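Service request form, structural biology core

Requester: graduate student, group of Dr. S.
Request type: structure prediction, single chain
Budget code: on file
Notes: please return the result as structure tokens.

Sequence provided:
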Amino acid sequence: MDVVWMVGVKERKTLIFGENRGSWGGDDGGFSFGNLVLGRYSGRMQSKATTVAAYLESLPPDRREALEKVRRVFLENLDPQYEEGMGYGMMGYHVPHSVWPHGYHCDPKLPLPFAGMASQKGHMSVYMMCLYGETPHAEWFKKAWAKTGKKLDMGKACIRFKRVEDLALDVIAETLRRVPVAEYLRIYQKSLAQMGKGVDGKPLKKARGAKAGGRKKGAGKTSGKKAASKKTARR
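Core staff response, request fulfilled:
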């Protein structure tokens, strides 16, 4: 899908980015937004809406009201450097190229995804990539949620719910405040480094001395024997 700019709520720019494309770590492991959202749940309903407003309008009244409340929490607590848009057939939030020129390392033409929300066949979902894996943010989130007494139905980074009352919205809000763009980029770059990749998603070049340090066993001994032979010959 082509990139299209529109105006969203609170004058936020809305970007439509490619559907069915990209994953945080791809086949190399690490984070995976595309794989997390696409095809992971058999009941997933992918919308063809091109704007957030159109997406919400297409939903049943009860689902629309629920996601509008969650959306309001996002808009009121997100770092203003994030932008809202449609991607992967759902509402999403991402780091724009104006902030992170490198884009999404699996496809630099796409902005770096951060979160999303969608209406599925049997439930609704909120995706938050900052909660992927055993990270301090994920640990804090689970403990804070447990204190509310609400049941947490969560996958790797997906929070499933059937009613907005099932959500601990104050915990979600605080999580968003804890992960401004600068913090998210720190997490992202750390993940790339663990995969042996630079900020552009390309493999990091090995240091020049790496090959020299990795000589085969016996190479030093062989050189020593040759030197000793030369000395003997001179005598």
